[in-house]
Write the structure tokens for this entry.
Amino acid sequence: MSFERQNGIRATVKGFISRASNVEELDDDVDLFETGIVNSLFAVQLMTFLEKTFAIEVGLDDLDIENFKSVNATTAFVVQKTVRT
Amino acid sequence: MFPFEQIGRYRDFQAFVSRDVMPEAERWDREQKLPSALIAGMADRGYLGCSVPVDYGGQGWDTVTFGALNEAFGRGSSALTGVLTVQAMVSSTLVKWGTPEQKRRLLPSLCNGNALGAFALTEPGAGSALRSLETRFSKKAGGGSLVLNGTKRWISCAQFAAFFLVFGRFEQRPMACVVPTERAGVHVEPIIDLMGFRAAGLAEIRFDDVEVPLDDVIGKPGFALSHVAPVGLHYGRISTACSALGLMRGCLEESIAYAAARTVGDKAVGEVGMIKTLLARMGTDVEAAGALCHGACRADDDRLPEAYEKALMAKYFTSVAAGRASSDAVQIRGASGCHASSPVSRYFRDAKIMEIIEGTTQIHEKILGEILLQRARGPIH
């Protein structure tokens, strides 16, 4: 996957998480769950967003907090799923 | 025309409810029991697994059609619609988080009515507070399986379910699993004499050292409250919201018919100004609730992240408005509205339950209030 494509995924992921958390200047490595900046619906909303936006399926094997804990982690997850599919 | 009336299958749903549900709903309420033949008939028509993919024995209907089904059934019997609610909660969870083997084993039997499920989340001491679950899974000595201990209460369909989707904790991590009703150590105690939803088969379930094979874990430990339960609760809220909408429609139709036909002195009841006020409020509430319910279903079909918020809002508004509508419907009918011979007395009792199931009104206000407040929060550095 090209560098530009990865950056595009990162920007899309970051845009959603920034809107969901209402944090404009979000560090790409900040732990979304430990800092408590997201609400109780965030986990399933992020999953739904990723599935629709990137045409991927978040399944049982993907249930790992390391996949969704930050902008960078989520970007890496999407990159990996997109390459795989 | 209400949004759901535009759905092609809606007339079929209404015809079934008019013929097989409305004439009997009062008796089911009085006897606190649903006939098994009726459940079988619903299964034959594909209603129980309507949203389950065809590959697993369902109909694969979209959420707007699912909403229309619940709205049509809500007009007839809230308790019966509760069966649709619970089967949707269980099946949607399994479709999303079940293994292929779990889906093959559980979903076809749920869809054809041979083995219904129940969503065992609420506990005597926890209510809607998901984070204070006391039900525990522990490792069985020797490994290979888990041991379940705990009590669930107010579980709809538990009296006739063949298996439970149980939520608890494993080493402090929230976890879900399926447990067959017949497994050793499972005790089901029917709860009777409820105010509403009297035929919905509620029960208390006690799990005493129940063995749970690892193959029966749903999802993974740690994700039961963040990812697993929210899927089922989401469809539970959509179902309950649409069911409450159907109940409101029933209140409106009953009230209009009574107000137009009944005379006091030489005037129709509907000529009284205050009755018009109640009808205006009820009719407007039905339109508003219909728009919210339909919007939530559409958002879910479009796989939008905001579908979760919309379902919360639809359930919140519609269940509260159903309480208002049913209270006013009783008021319009006067003494006759307080008797079982009028469906509005049942609507009144059932509507209160709708403010409690799938998260109380106060829980919805807490979650929605936090979401709205978050939008006003400034940048965090």
The mean pLDDT of chain A is 89. The radius of gyration of chain A is 12 Å.
